[in-house]
């Protein structure tokens, strides 16, 4: 880890800088594939599945029997673990349901807000060697609770034309309505425009590489919403001598193994503690299967010594970490005052892995400082708030004159007329 | 209005199509101005204020004395109207506050969700002949209730270097922290990067012309969130013979006066009623000050006759109107079953103007079919949801094994280790 001791505020900006990637080279490819999928539907989908996934599929819809077969191949211990995680995620996201907000703002002026489900959602689950079935839980469970009618899941096929067993098992367990073997840019384009086999959706969720990220951004230009912009995953740990250096090192490593561009930061008020974490890191790194990758990320990671909890808090809020672990003698201070973080993990027995898999909170979180303005995925991500209002005769009489005056001052005579007409009738 | 009688579903898509505008020509200009503002700060801001607003400003920050002077020039009746509207908007948005959601998902696994304010928000209010002070209320009131610390308002100066009195009065009344005379692309760029005088913000809200719209889209590429993508304003009225044709016509006209690209649609089960609305429209149009503009919009508007309320509902959900007025014998059917609409206005005495100004609901709403996935602006738009979790020793023992199994199955050994280390210690 690179060590920084009491950096001045002037240095914070560069110290907390995330790596930025130019995506212009990618944009052209993404635009091209979007155009082809829009024009040629499944023909284009097939072409790019063959090209990028190296497999020619007769049929890209996962069948019932495929799901059944895959489910048999997931072992019972893992099934039980997945079910435990699902149950916790359900409990936490169900609790996020909100009642209708009803207010009679003035006599006869009834206003209310209701949340209604987004009817059609698309979930993207990356392929590759490690099947991210945990993300299936994190996206499908709240979509179900929200009441989304169509829940489409796209994931790329492997060279044998299959999706990982665990993904199929989890998707079916949670209630996905359609699973499609399609990945990358072509999957996002398919859900944006709809094809013969891929339904058009209103909002797209899920992680992915930079091609998927750019494709999701492009989807928004065509009127499809997305969960949030994405960047490499991040963890910031705030710890002091009350923390366990071995635990902290293990948490930093669990972030580092995500990839060499992972962001890993330790903030502490104690240099001896930082040193202990460093030596623990070396010890634990040595035996990791993904050692090469984690080593690179750790080399880029930062250990920042600050003079007080107050300075630490200010720095952390400036950074806005995706994951924030706090293990200090005064956790409450940080919990009460943190403004910008995706998810917060408190104390020595709350590793990031807990929230990644099974505590019940969602692991789809804002990276890249987006926690300053964005929520992580939650029940509301699958709903939209709608407002309703109903005025009685008394209601329009109570606010009519104010509307007339304001509309007139804004130069909108027809807005005024709509009220005047009604008020005049009521005077008769 | 163009009349369509029982159009087939195959025709719906083209019938409900919004006009699409190519923005490529604009994008280049927007990119250029963003680059200049990023590189040269206030120098670039001044340059473009001179160029686009035709005024060279010594100082672009609105002073306290300017606000006081402007407030004196707003007449007392209008002040009272603004205060009434503000009070209703406050009541409705305050009621949207949510409590912390706390769940112990398993023994020792405490999870909670809290909403915290976005610290720095930027509001854009267009200039022009009609000062949109109502939008000031709609954005500043919820920002205040949410607890946003910095509330920056940008609005272009007129040729005399001034912002409309009503805007300054409303902004000050509601608690804007800084008012800056800057408009268009350069205002959005300024809030995106920050300049010597313009604070950098985390999220930008507010309406604007297509230049502002494209600039807001570009801001998202630099990590700044926006309220929602924007398109021309829309109204769909569902009415039957129980409705008042004159009222319906006045509502359609209040939408039409927004501009020639306004979307105005009447859906009805009764052709005689559609005819009555048509003749009412002609009568009312004749005396409108903005007649020319409204006439164009009305010429492009559609009157769609359908065979039943069920068909009407399906068509309306397919369109997803920004504003939806329903005045029928069975309003409940529509209220209960509408999936996609920004704001719903119920019955004969609830004109769209009510929500535009004073009922208490927000008038910043999703256009262009975005109501299928986006909420209108509400209290949550100024907050983000953060999650917290705290595991006790018992907690990690309850879910630790599930995490280990899942992490291993995803090939993430370090995620597993972070749990194993802790579990092993607890076994000692």
UniProtKB/TrEMBL annotation, chains A, B:
Binding-site residues, NAD(+): 124, 186, 209
Chain's role: Catalyzes the sequential NAD-dependent oxidations of L-histidinol to L-histidinaldehyde and then to L-histidine.
Family: Belongs to the histidinol dehydrogenase family.
Binding-site residues, Zn(2+): 255, 258, 356, 415
Organism, scientific name: Winogradskyella pacifica
GO CC, one annotated term: cytosol
Protein name: Histidinol dehydrogenase
Gene3D superfamilies for this protein: 1.20.5.1300, Nitrogenase molybdenum iron protein domain
Cofactor note: Binds 1 zinc ion per subunit.
MF-aspect GO terms: histidinol dehydrogenase activity; NAD binding; zinc ion binding
Keyword Oxidoreductase: yes
């Amino acid at each position: 880890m690179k060590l920084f001791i009491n950096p001045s505020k002037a240095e914070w900006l560069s110290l907390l800088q995330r790596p930025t990637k130019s995506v212009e080279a990618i944009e052209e490819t993404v635009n091209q594939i979007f155009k082809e999928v829009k024009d040629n539907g499944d023909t284009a989908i097939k072409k790019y599945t063959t090209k990028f996934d190296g497999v020619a599929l007769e049929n890209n819809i996962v069948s019932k029997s495929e799901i059944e077969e895959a489910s048999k191949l997931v072992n019972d211990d893992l099934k039980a673990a997945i079910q435990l995680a699902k149950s916790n995620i359900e409990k936490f996201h169900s609790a996020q349901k909100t009642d209708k907000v009803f207010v009679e703002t003035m006599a006869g002026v009834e206003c209310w807000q209701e949340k209604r489900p987004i009817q059609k959602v698309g979930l993207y689950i990356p392929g590759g060697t490690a099947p991210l079935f945990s993300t299936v839980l994190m996206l499908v469970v709240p979509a179900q609770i929200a009441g989304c009618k169509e829940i489409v899941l796209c994931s790329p096929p492997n060279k044998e034309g299959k999706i990982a067993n665990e993904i199929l098992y989890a998707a079916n367990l949670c209630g996905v309505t359609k699973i499609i073997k399609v990945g990358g840019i072509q999957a996002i384009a398919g859900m944006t425009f709809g094809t013969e086999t891929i339904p058009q959706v209103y909002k797209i969720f899920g992680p992915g590489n930079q091609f998927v990220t750019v494709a999701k951004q492009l989807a928004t230009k065509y009127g499809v919403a997305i969960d949030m912009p994405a960047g490499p995953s991040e963890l910031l740990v705030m710890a002091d001598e009350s923390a366990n250096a071995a635990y902290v090192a293990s948490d930093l490593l669990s972030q580092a193994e995500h990839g060499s561009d992972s962001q890993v930061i330790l903030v502490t008020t104690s240099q001896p503690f930082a040193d202990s974490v460093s030596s623990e890191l070396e010890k634990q790194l040595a035996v990791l299967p993904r050692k090469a990758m984690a080593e690179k990320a750790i080399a880029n990671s930062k250990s920042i010594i600050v003079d007080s909890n107050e300075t630490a808090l200010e720095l952390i809020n400036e950074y806005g970490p995706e994951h924030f672990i706090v293990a200090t003698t005064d956790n409450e201070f940080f919990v009460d005052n943190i403004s910008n973080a995706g998810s917060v993990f408190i104390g020595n027995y709350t590793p990031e892995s807990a929230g990644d898999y099974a505590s019940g909170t969602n692991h789809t979180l804002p990276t890249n400082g987006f926690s300053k303005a964005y929520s992580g995925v939650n029940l509301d991500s699958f709903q939209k708030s709608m407002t309703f209002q109903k005025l009685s005769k008394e209601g329009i009489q109570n606010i009519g004159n104010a509307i007339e005056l304001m509309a007139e001052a804004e130069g909108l005579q027809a807005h005024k007329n709509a009220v005047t007409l009604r008020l005049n009738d009521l005077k008769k």
